[in-house]
Amino acid sequence: MYKILLLEDDEMLLQTLKSLLANQNYKVTPVKNINQALDETYENSFDLYLFDINVPFGSGIDLLKDLRDSGDKTPTFFITALKDIKSISKGFDAGCDDYIKKPFDFDELLVRVEAILKRNNPFIKYGDIKYDQEEDRIYKHDKEIELGEVSHNIASIFLSNIGKIIHKDQLFDLMKKPSDIALRVQINKLKTELGLNIKNVRGLGYKLEKL
Question: Has this prediction a pTM greater than 0.85?
Fold first, then answer.
């Protein structure tokens, strides 16, 4: 599960973003000021920083500059209402990877977050299972697992969409001779061999439950 540090002093936006990202299976740590953010970066490691710029006790830009100077290379997005070129330039000079300008489209934010996390962290972990998205390889206890083409493809789509419903038709498209019985056999195989907690969602399809 990817971990995101979210620095935002607007309580409503903070909770909205936290909920939105949590629904996408990201573990979000929300903070409202520079001091809280510094404490979290000192005590924990994260896969992504989402920083507002104008926050209590300092600036998100100065915070990022200090983190970069200390060797912290965590990908960082600024979420800000600032639109002037000077502020944007300062942000990139400090080492940010992207700007999200308020007001913004939530779907666009999710697309950008997913893209940079995949680029910097190709592995998806699920218990003792690890899925390498770039190489399309599945490991259990760090040993590669050979499942066969159909089972591998079905496992891959579940591991890439933890907590999301995969419609039955999407799974049928991955099978050579699709049927309800054949799909149940494949699901049971993945439960047994990989320990995937896949649940049937009546009338819709299947979902790999979050751990």
Answer: no
131 and 80, same structural domain? no
* Tens-level pLDDT at each residue, the chain (211 residues): 789 999 999 999 999 999 999 988 788 999 999 999 999 999 898 999 999 998 999 899 999 999 999 999 999 999 888 777 777 788 788 889 888 888 888 888 899 998 888 787 778 889 899 998 888 999 998 899 999 999 999 999 999 888 889 999 999 999 999 999 999 999 999 999 999 999 999 989 999 998 8
For residues 36 and 47, state if they share a domain.
Answer: yes
Q: Tell me how many domains the chain contains.
A: 2
Task: Mark out the alpha helices in the chain (DSSP H runs).
Answer: 11-22, 34-43, 60-69, 85-94, 106-120, 149-159, 168-172, 180-194
